[in-house]
Amino acid sequence: MRVLVTGGTGLIGTAVVAELLGNGHTVLALTRSDASARAAEASGAEPLKGGLADLDVLRAGVARTDGVIHLAFRNDFSSPEALASAIAEETAALTVLGEALAGSDRPLVTVSGTPWVPGRASTEADPLPTDGPVGGRGRTVNEILGLSARGVRSTAVRLPRTVHHQGTGGFAGVLTETARRTGVSGCPGDGTQRWPAVHALDAAVLFRLALERGPAGSAWHAVADEGDRVRDIAAVIGRRLGLPVESVPQDAYGPLGPIFATDQPSSSARTREALGWEPEHPGLLQDLENIQP
Description:
By secondary structure, the protein is of the alpha/beta class. The chain folds into two domains: 2-162 and 198-225, NAD(P)-binding Rossmann-like Domain (Rossmann fold, 3-Layer(aba) Sandwich); 165-196 and 227-266 and 284-288, no CATH class. Helix content is 40%, strand content 20%. The protein has helices at 11-21, 34-43, 55-63, 80-101, 135-146, 170-182, 200-213, 230-241, 257-260, 269-275, 284-287, and strands spanning 2-6, 26-31, 46-49, 67-70, 107-113, 153-159, 162-164, 185-188, 194-199, 218-221, 225-229, 245-248. Strand 4, helix 4 (80-101) and strand 5 form a beta-alpha-beta unit. The radius of gyration is 18 Å and the shape is globular. Residues 3-217 form the NAD-dependent epimerase/dehydratase domain.
């Protein structure tokens, strides 16, 4: 299958492209810069110059491929307005991708976060939140899954709060970079809240399986660690960086603060059973041992 991949040179995208190429697919990778284009070529993908805002480029990419994996997102969490702008850009891009695929029965694999449910681990059957700081992404994903009624084999891979590789990535990566900047390994609140996690190489396998076999309208959980306590994550970061571990207010993390403070374990039992997906790489706490002082 020839696959259009957006965000193919990021931490997750690099793993997804390698997984696709290693399993007989070819890749057309959307690239925003010359450096990204060179990285895509070096990985074995063909670069397609453009970004999520280049809607005509997206349409042209769909016309040249057999399916799409969407990963790109402008990760600007500096303010609620910046986050809303990034979500609006992604929504416009996904709308174009979906319209271009309508009636073709070709796959469109998009991405969201795992939902959170008070008092228990969320499952694939739980709906995405459609309010709060990232509620717009939930609404857009729901619309994309609804394209199953219009001849699009649309599926969604729900990623946990931390997708990691070699000690970097996701919410844990934000904690690490904030610790480097402030001199304190901060723990939002009392740290008893739990965050799910997955290694990027394991997540990449699930994206491929969803592309190849995911039924239209289905959602899957790329969760390896059901829920690591944030105090344990902060403790490893503090030890690796030689910094004190302290509780900090959630507003220290801007618009993501309310999400950081939420207990949000998640299960992937149905995904494992239905698609035969089994994570094989190190869990988050072990992978954080790769953080360099």
